[in-house]
Amino acid sequence: MRSVDIIVPCYNEEEVLDTFYQVTESVVSSMAGYRFTYIFVDDGSRDSTLQRLLALAGAHENVRYLSFSRNFGKEAAMFAGLSHSSADLVIVMDADLQHPPAMIPEMMKGIEEGYDCAAARRTTRAGERRIRSALSNLFYHISNRMSDVKMPQDAVDFRIMTRQMVNSILELSEVERFSKGIFAWVGYETKWFPYENVERTLGTTKWSLKGLFQYAIDGITSFSISPLRLVSGAGFLISLVAFVYIIVTLIQTLIFGIDVPGYVTTLCAVLFLGGIIELSIGILGEYIAHIYMEAKDRPIYIIKTSNLPDGPRKTDGPPDWDRPRQAKRQSKLPSDNDRKGSF
After folding, report:
1. Which of 73, 91, 117, 165 is the least buried, fewest Cβ under 10 Å from its Cβ?
2. How large is the average pLDDT for residues 123-130?
């Protein structure tokens, strides 16, 4: 019997948790040969999500939960769930039932066929605002043009992964995480399962247009340096045009004498170049911000309470957060022999 962990990030999902468990359990309980365990990750919810998780854990032996000390974001919640999973297979899905649990048996067949990952991809965006759908399509187009990491159009986080793939994902312990890009970056064979978008029947979306825009910027800058090259190209082109303009102006001055300068032309040039400079500084700032966040080396999340076997964060030893990052830092520390040889 193969063990399966279902990772479910939760933020203000008190209305849907009971329904989610009932619907999902009705699907997976009939799958022979698998033992399912739920790992709910409470991402610092402000409602009664934690209380509902406590009730579920008390009523069902296969329910585990983690609760953060504050809201760290969905990316941190997914990473925490993956970090604390130990099963042969891991499922990542949302609690709002927009990721249909009924697809799990079909997706599991993809794993049985030998694929490392079985992932869902939306074929429609029914129920979404047109502006949001258009911006999403634009993001995938721009990201795939700028980066070597190709993400399938309308791919979602709903997927089943083997233990080997999960371990590879955990090796990428950056603070500024973009899971869709990370899933694609680690490679492995993925079988895609198309499905029609499912509208929310309970709860409300936690993503604002501003949040999605920032998420898209983080995604592009996390896996591509093309914006920096575009800035360099724009600077070279402007310099070339300016050089040609100087030569032309110099020739005109030598032949026809000094002409009265045009204030409108000067103003337009100054405003244009000022805009280019501000844009360039902004792009550089995005990359510097990523470096700044990584250099501080803060934990990706902090656990306040949990019913997992390893328990919540302890005060008498190393903190129980972000074990891959902790191991990564330990691997960089010099040994006693290294220290002696350095003097």
Report:
1. 73
2. 64
